[in-house]
Design brief:
With about 160 residues, the protein is α+β, with helices and mostly antiparallel strands. It has three helices and eight strands; from the N terminus they run ββββββαββαα. It has helices spanning about 80-95, 125-135, 135-140, and strands at about 1-5, 5-10, 15-25, 30-35, 45-55, 60-65, 100-105, 110-115. The strands form two sheets. A six-stranded antiparallel beta sheet has the order 1-2-3-4-5-6, with no helix packed on it. The protein has a two-stranded antiparallel ribbon with strand order 7-8. β5 and β6 form a beta hairpin. It is elongated and about 75 Å long.
């Protein structure tokens, strides 16, 4: 197994490579965090965080492994602690004046939609960065996101 360009990669003896996860936090010597999906699609990733702390001449290693959306620990997606990270992201977008609407899709279990309106033109890359990096629930692999540009055109219907 190797770590390259933020990805955790398994390489077989014949040279085949498989991505097992993506590093979301790298703070040597204190912590590492990453999505984890060996043999599974990235959308089914769980989240692993490992921290290291000095303790009486030894090192305390703490490992926290949170299941992803495909296998919530208990209850519903909305009860998982990682969902609170998504709510925090939505609150930040609201405070910035970007949030238009957000909520679940009632006809598709576990799916929802968030609509952001950013000032100016050509903001797709900014919207993508906000949705994929600033929303910790997405960057940690808990939620998956698809960013789509959307333009509303209005005209008189006479």
């Amino acid at each position: 197994m190797a770590f390259a360009d933020g990805q955790i990669i398994e390489r077989s003896a014949d040279g085949d490579a498989a991505v097992w996860g993506t590093v979301s936090r790298w703070e040597p010597p204190d912590a590492v965090a990453f999505s984890w999906h060996p043999g599974q699609p990235a959308e089914r990733a769980s989240h692993v965080e490992v921290t290291f702390a000095a303790l009486d001449g030894q090192t305390r290693v703490t490992l926290v492994h949170r299941p992803g959306p495909a296998a919530p620990a208990t209850g519903t997606l909305f009860e998982d602690p990682m969902f609170a990270e998504h709510v925090a992201f939505l609150n930040r977008m609201h405070e910035a004046g970007y949030l238009v609407a957000a909520g679940p899709l009632p006809d598709t279990a576990g799916e929802g939609m968030t609509i952001l309106r950013l000032p100016g033109t050509g903001q797709l890359s900014t919207a993508t960065r906000l949705a994929t990096e600033d929303d910790v629930s997405v960057s940690a692999g808990f939620l998956a996101v698809t960013v789509r540009p959307w333009q509303v055109v209005m005209h008189a219907g006479r």
